[in-house]
Design a protein that fits this description.
Length: 768
């Protein structure tokens, strides 16, 4: 009897199963080998992965931040506008919206969501449907932190299209699992929000919340959180600013996900999805906010600082990426008062300037004639002209056509703010040249800390800083240095001189014969305190004649003037250019009992973790005796206390109960108006004038410092002393404990001496 044959189908099935198992196991082993080779970047085929140290200390670009002394964020120095927050600074609405939309199983997986991966595999690869992304928040954080998709992370095999994405995904799986080991879930979620791009130059949730809603992340409402979470899919396409309809749809999709995952009820969803998107949109830049000019000055110093200081590992600091925290000496309240005072006064002053100007151009020569080709010559100094010159060479016709070509632009105005208009480059130049400019600085003379800094009218349209970078003739505000030299050489504030013509003779030079501001001489005897209070040129010139330019220049330098000073008689009337910055520092010496403190504006620099890298301290040096410094504050008080003093017009509410000192300054053609003001707490300086010296009031009276500059100081001081939270109180200048060796009671002084007779001199002999 024959044996039954084994069915062939059974043999075929067993072989198939066997081969499938072999293929499956080989696939598993191959994938493990593939992952291992990627993890070590085998033969450089796959590109590098971050090491474990990098995972624990991820290096993301963090903007450095500048804070005021009272803790207000003044601005950021950015490559990517990013400032990190901690988990406890996040709104629960934001966390719920993120998890519901991006990774609903975030709390349960370990960096890889196998369920989501299978969904993507089946629907996208096998069925060809759109199944959404399978990346977890951990994987997306890995992508944000370590730039796994950039060319720098690529290996030799990354050029193969299909294989490239598999390598990238595998890297993100590896890094995601490592992140899960190194961080808590809350930390990963916070890292993701801090490192994501939200569009509008907003990187990180703190900047995004500020940019779109002017809120902190903890203050975000549910619907606002949904708008920001919706941006992760495509920041530009779903931008609430540029594509509001798309953004609204995406926001409601996020809200629907929150409802589906039980973060919202149906009623809450219906209510919130019906709301419009309400933005408070403002993209941070260097032209917005407080202290715009100051921030640019600080930036230049910080860039220099980063080049001169190294981290502990020997690498240089990166101002735009290391998340430094810079604490300035500026007080945000005082800065706001300074900016308000500038705007309030300059708006009215500009209107007065326009009224006087009428239909005439304001650029005039010494004979008040309009300077021909002024704008054409100014145009040749602009960047626009330089670029056109590069493009067209000597083809002046083409250059002129382009310069006079009309185009849409926004321009600054006091009356209407920013104005949309149609202008050519020449029109624009002509328009802006007619604006009067200003510089203002206020300092604590005892510490050297600068409290307020206004470098101009509007940083967006006028970039030049008039506090430190601008230098102009100080006019009569330089006279206190002449009288300081006199005080140091034994002259009393009661020393009397006759107001009459003075001639100063120097070998090989023509005689110097200054006139008074009103071109008249009273021929009356007056004290030098009274003379400085009324700003009488002849008596200042006489004191220069008695002292010599060399002594006056040396005194000014010792007190804090750093600009070049020519040792000539006209130095007495302020003919050498100086800055507001150095003038305020020099006047501070009088208030600070003769000790010069160099003005400074950075208190300290911290790293992103709050560790102090450098603490800055005031640079101090003795410059004059305490007695002489006090006598100079007494001299400067004369402007308020002497008959005809140039500070008599200051508001009585400010003067009441307080000793103040001040000095006006006006150059000969009124192109520069100054005011330097002091109290026991503050020293402040103001300059007002045209960017070009040829631009000024035709009337010297209208352009004098008492009208152009002093009101800014007055308004600022009234605001500061009216704010009790600042801690400034009215009172006198502290008097030295020792009795004064120089008599300031003029009746007593007159009885003891008749020194004004020293005014007799030989007009023919050389003085120096």
């Amino acid at each position: 009897m024959s044996k039954k044959a084994t069915p062939q189908t059974s043999s075929w099935v067993s072989k198939t199963v066997k081969y499938l198992w072999i293929a499956f196991l080989a696939g598993i082993f191959g994938f493990i080998l593939f992952v291992w080779m990627i993890s070590i970047n085998f033969l450089g085929l796959f590109g590098s992965l971050p090491d474990f140290k990098a995972l624990e200390n991820p290096d993301s670009q963090i903007a450095s931040e500048l804070y005021s002394s009272d803790g207000l964020l003044l601005g950021r120095y950015i490559r990517e506008n990013r400032s990190p927050v901690n988990y406890d600074e996040l709104s629960p609405n934001l966390v719920n919206a993120l998890i519901a939309t991006e990774d609903v199983r975030f709390e349960s997986h370990s960096g890889i969501d196998m369920q989501a991966m299978m969904r993507v595999f089946v629907k996208s690869i096998l069925l060809g449907q759109n199944a959404g992304g399978g990346s977890t928040l951990s994987q997306q954080t890995a992508k944000n932190l370590f730039k796994t998709r950039t060319d720098a992370s690529n290996g030799l095999l990354s050029s193969i299209p299909g294989l490239r994405m598999l390598i990238i995904k595998t890297k993100e799986w590896i890094v995601a699992t490592q992140l899960e080991k190194a961080y808590t879930k809350n930390e990963i979620l916070t890292l993701y929000l801090n490192t994501s791009d939200y569009g509008s130059n907003a990187f990180g949730i703190k900047t995004a919340a500020e940019t779109f809603f002017n809120k902190k992340p903890a203050e975000l409402a549910t619907q606002e959180s949904a708008v920001l979470v919706g941006l992760f899919k495509a920041p530009s396409y779903y931008s609430p600013v540029y594509n509001p309809d798309n953004s609204l749809r995406r926001r409601n999709t996020v809200l629907a996900q929150m409802m589906r995952n039980n973060y919202l009820t149906r009623e809450e969803f219906d209510s919130l999805s019906a709301l419009p998107i309400e933005l408070n949109y403002s993209v941070a830049n260097q032209n917005k906010g407080l202290a715009t000019y100051f921030r640019e000055i600080v930036k230049a110093d910080l860039i220099k600082w980063t080049k001169e200081n190294l981290k502990s590992d020997g690498t240089a600091y990166d101002l735009y990426g290391d998340g430094l925290k810079i604490y300035a000496t500026i007080d945000s309240r005082m800065q706001r008062y300074a900016e308000e005072s500038v705007a309030e006064h300059m708006k009215g002053l500009q209107a007065a300037f326009y009224k006087e100007m009428g239909n005439r151009d304001p650029w005039i020569d010494e004979s008040f004639r309009v300077i021909p080709n002024f704008i054409e010559n100014a145009a040749r100094r602009t960047e626009a002209y330089r670029l056109l010159k590069v493009r067209y060479g000597d083809d002046t016709d083409s250059i002129n056509i382009k310069l006079n070509e009309k185009k849409k632009m926004k321009v600054f105005s006091w009356e209407k703010g920013e104005v949309d208009t149609l202008m050519s480059s020449m029109d624009s130049l002509r328009y802006y040249k007619k604006f009067l400019q200003t510089g203002f600085m206020s300092m604590d003379p005892h510490t050297g800390q600068i409290k307020a800094w206004v470098g101009g009218l509007d940083h967006k349209y006028f970039k030049f800083d008039h506090v430190k970078r601008g230098k102009r003739q100080p006019g009569s505000t330089f006279k206190p240095f002449v009288y300081a030299a006199a005080i140091e050489n034994g002259y009393s504030p009661c020393y009397s001189v006759i107001d009459q013509p003075v001639e100063v003779y120097i070998p090989g030079q023509p005689a110097w014969r200054p006139s008074n501001a009103n071109s008249k001489f009273s021929y009356e005897k007056m004290t030098i305190r009274h003379a400085m209070a009324e700003s009488v040129n002849s008596i200042t010139a006489y004191m220069m004649k008695k002292l010599s330019p060399k002594i006056v220049a040396e005194t000014a330098r010792r007190l804090g003037i750093t600009s070049d000073l020519q040792e000539v008689p006209s130095l007495a009337l302020g003919v050498n250019d100086v800055s507001v910055f150095e003038m305020v520092g020099a006047f501070g010496t009088f208030v600070n009992k003769g000790e010069h403190t160099t003005p400074f504006y950075i208190d300290r620099i911290e790293d992103k973790n709050g560790n102090v890298i450098q603490q800055f301290t005031a640079k101090k040096r003795p410059a004059m005796s305490e007695e002489h410094a006090y006598l100079m504050t007494y001299m400067l008080r004369g402007g308020f206390e002497e008959r005809g003093g140039t500070s008599q017009g200051v508001n009585w509410d400010l003067r009441q109960g307080m000793e103040l000192g001040g000095k006006t300054g006006t150059t000969q053609n009124a192109s520069d108006g100054w005011y330097m003001g002091i109290s026991k707490d503050l020293v402040s300086g103001v300059w007002v004038g045209g960017d070009d010296r040829a631009i000024h009031f035709r009337s010297w009276t209208s352009g004098q410092g008492g009208r152009t500059a002093r009101p800014i100081w007055q308004n600022y001081m009234m605001k500061v002393y009216g704010d009790e939270s600042l801690g400034y109180t009215k009172g006198p200048f502290p008097r030295p404990e020792r009795p004064l060796s120089i008599e300031i009671d003029c009746d007593t002084y007159e009885r003891e001496s008749q020194r004004y007779s020293d005014f007799d001199y030989d007009a023919t002999k050389n003085d120096f």
